[in-house]
Design brief:
This protein is an all-alpha fold. Helix content is 68%, strand content 0%. The chain has one domain: Nucleotidyltransferases  domain 2 (Four Helix Bundle (Hemerythrin (Met), subunit A)). It contains 7 helices and no strands. The chain starts with a helix and ends with a helix.
Length: 138
């Protein structure tokens, strides 16, 4: 079974990669891809935490699909729905192609969305662990 803690670690690794300094050799599209990956791995960590087997049922990069699945377990805030637009970076801009270049502002927005998402995932896990411990003490 997948361990959610490994997925959380990998989500934070992807966020760190998304935050590397932009140079002429690094494009915003690739940095935004890593931001998307941070969110995807974080959401999959939360699904694993709730007992989902993601290797069978959730082989997707679509953050909207992952959030829809999470609605079975938690209330998903609007900010998370907003963050799901990062899905485009997993598919649409991952490889060279016919699309508009990603701007610095779009990159900054992607980083903020990824940071918010990982904070939200951590809060959900922390909250559920706290509630579980409280029930066990009773």
């Amino acid at each position: 079974m997948d361990d959610y803690k490994i997925w959380i670690k990998r989500a934070h690794n992807s966020l760190a990669l998304a935050k590397v300094e932009k140079t002429d050799e690094i494009c915003y599209e690739d940095l935004c891809y890593n931001a998307q990956q941070a969110v995807e791995k974080g959401l999959k960590a939360l699904l694993i935490f709730f007992g989902e087997n993601i290797s069978r049922s959730l082989k997707t990069h679509d953050l909207f699909v992952l959030l829809k699945k999470l609605e079975q377990y938690v209330e998903v805030p609007d900010e998370m729905i907003d963050a799901a637009v990062l899905t485009e970076y997993a598919t649409g801009t991952r490889y060279p192609g016919d699309y508009e270049e990603v701007s610095e502002q779009s990159y900054q927005n992607a980083i903020k969305a990824a940071e918010y998402s990982l904070d939200w995932v951590s809060m959900q896990i922390c909250d559920k662990c706290t509630r579980k411990r409280s029930k066990n003490k009773q």
